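Appendix B. Extra example for self-study. Work through it before the problem class; the solution is given directly after the inputs so you can check yourself.
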Amino acid sequence: MSAPLVLLRGLRKAYGERVLLDIGQLAIEEGGAYVLVGANGSGKTTLLRILAGLETAQAGSMSFRGEQFGFAAYPERLRREIAYVHQHPYLFHTSLGHNLEYGLACRGLAAAERARRVADAIEWAGLQAQLATPPAKLSGGEKQRAALARARALDPALLLFDEPTSNLDRVGRAQTLALLGQLREERRTVIVACHDREVMGLDGFARLRLDDGWVTLQSG
Amino acid sequence: MDLLEPTHQAFQLLFSGDPELLRIIWLSLWVSVAAIALAAAPSIALGFLLAKKRFPGQRAAVVLVQALLSFPTVVIGLVIYLLLSRRGPLGSYELLFTPWAIMIGYMVIAFPILVVFTISAVQGADPRVYETARCLGADRLRASITTLWEVRFGILAAVVNGFGRAISEVGCAVMVGGNIEGLTRNVPTAIALETTKGDFAQGIALGFVLMVVALVVNVLLALLQGEGGLT
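Solution. Structure tokens for the complete assembly:
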């Protein structure tokens, strides 16, 4: 049996006296799709941010494809393997195309390859009509789709989405759910933190439940 | 006092292409632009670090830079004079009473303005900017540059304010430049001199130039900000 893509061990995150996360072990399998559920303030966002290297934990370790490290020494190269999308994604005040290209340029990809991936991302997210629209003028749903497409275009090993359907209207939610379903069909490794019952009910997504700092795998 | 006659003379002087007047205007412009161009990169970088990094003494450093904003420019001029004077530590470079001395003075005066405005712009930036850049694979330097780009209108305001302060500065320019005709006389020092001599025409003409420069620079900034608001 191959090693999990990500393995967390003994993760402990506390704010003062309050222990937010106390996870003995959590394995994220390559190609697995997960929804991370739990009450408000249960630590879903914090767990995703720790995985993305945006926050550290007081104790524990993480291994990525078998390589183990402590949270204080998050490897820089992992930032190109794990893509995190905020609950309210930020799009740079440039153009939609530049937003989609940004991470590709960070990876030093050739211009032709960047253009190919940007075109693919636009088509995947159905944003052809919005290409000339300044990002600030996009609707919430369009911004969310653009952020999903921007993360997918990087072809990372792990995609982390924080409440991607919150504050979206019915149409925006449906479009975002469809894209999440497509990611699952593409066998990408995805974790989606959510409250949304429709996201929890997505086909093929296993459920990770966070309660009192503990995380349990509920179904596969 | 009759202001009409000297104003009429001032405009005649402006449009006559008087070489001395043009030289004074040119000196003011290039010295101010050069000072801001040289001070911008280090001061914006320092402003970014003071806004984003947490380190012992950070608060004290911010207070010190803010205090520099209210330092009298003649005192700054005095310090630079002592440094550049023949017996000063930089006297061997023979910069005193040259345009370069004025440029150094302007850099020192503009520096805290640029730093404080940058701190304000970066602290006001959405924290998701830097995080998003990092999550998309940018290294720290690239994510920092991206953050500065996202607050570019605040940074431009810093540059415009620094430039405005430099081009209208008198005290420091007189002390380290000496207001030497044909060499270091610039717009504000010439206005001060001509006014004390009772030659209001040249003072008004030069004052008009300063106001036009300030207006043009601020209109350009407003236009750029307006464009940014659309994106």
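Self-check: The mean pLDDT of chain A is 94. If your reasoning did not lead you there, revisit section 3.
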